[in-house]
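Ex. 9. Protein: TRAP transporter large permease protein.
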Amino acid sequence: MIGYVSIGLLALLSLSIPVGIVLFLLGFGVDTFFSPFPLIRGLGNMVWSTSNNATLIAIPFFVMLGEILVRSGVAARTYAALDKWISWLPGGLVHANVATATMFSATSGSSVATAATVATVAMPQAEKLGYDPKLFSGAIAAGGTLGIMIPPSINLIVYGFLTQTSIPQLFLAGLVPGVGLAVAFIVITALICVIRPELGGERRTFPLAEMLRALVHLIPIILLFTVIIGTIYKGWATPTEAAAVGVAGAVAIAAVFGGVSVTMFYESILGTVKITSMIMLVVLGASFLNFTLASAGLGNELRQFLDGLGLTPLMTIFVIVGIYIVLGFFIETLSLMVVTIPIIVPLVVEMGYDPIWFGILMIVLIEMALITPPVGLNLYVVQGARQSGTMSDVMLGAIPYVVAMLLMAAALIAFPQIALYLPGALQ
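Predicted structure tokens for TRAP transporter large permease protein:
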């Protein structure tokens, strides 16, 4: 059955059918050919029970928060400020790409939105200042992936919802690996530009007074992140309530800097509706597919397959990592999560691993899928913003950052406390 479902998934995706529809079609197919009794009668109840959950309300709020910051011009000012502070490093403005992505990851919760934000602001600078298009665009694509690791993260909310795991604990667990990846991206960029200085463009320095004035545009984002995460960990608000507070804070920041207008609100709401609709269609379709797969016995089939390999728990984790890397080449990231979580996570927990730790490991692998062809969404987002050159440039530029993600995945397996220290210390 696993083979038939995989072939069906790839075939339908190759026809450019929307992912959410593909998941529903696969669910109907599994129900028809593999399930011992008809499940279509329970479709309405399943869709209602999945969507009728207060936790999921956080998703449109976090999407809107990011949309407001982008549409109001806060992103452009943040990028310019970071440029003044870190363009003296080998690689120059490339580091501002990663740093800006890191800061917006701490508010938007979406990798694609983060990549689109930074690409729109940064790409015009690449040709003007003589940067290598491969490295410059690859850094933006990789930096954008931090949106699903650094809290608040929409993908971590979905993981917590599907596994009934504490979302605040997941947010804490993602903080150190997320910042660690950002630092790793900066270090790798600097090393590349030390070896090949011509790739990094001009290293620029600015007067201290100008750098200090630029801090005005960084403080609001830092305060917004502190308010969102602080209210969650202090117990003053749930993730959903904190997301609503974040939207109000984003509007206030936009108002202070003169970015509020009817057009801004209209575009932000429209963007929020589009992105949220896509996410919910994928979640509902995956829930129905998971329902039919579980009824058809896929969980037992996969468990028997892994048990038949005769591997230790650690070796089984490596097999699972390999499965996610391969599937990440072909399946959109949110879909990959919601399809595999109900099958893989129970097996991992049964082997004695912490579900919070595995959630962070999974997110690293999902991040990798965002910048690996042929379905790496961030690659297409950055290429769309470039409006010139070839997709291969972006793909090649992302390779060093894929290596950094592999190293982070290995570090998480070797040292689980990278993810578990903060949740344990602040529990």
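Check your answer against this statement. The longest helix spans residues 262-295.
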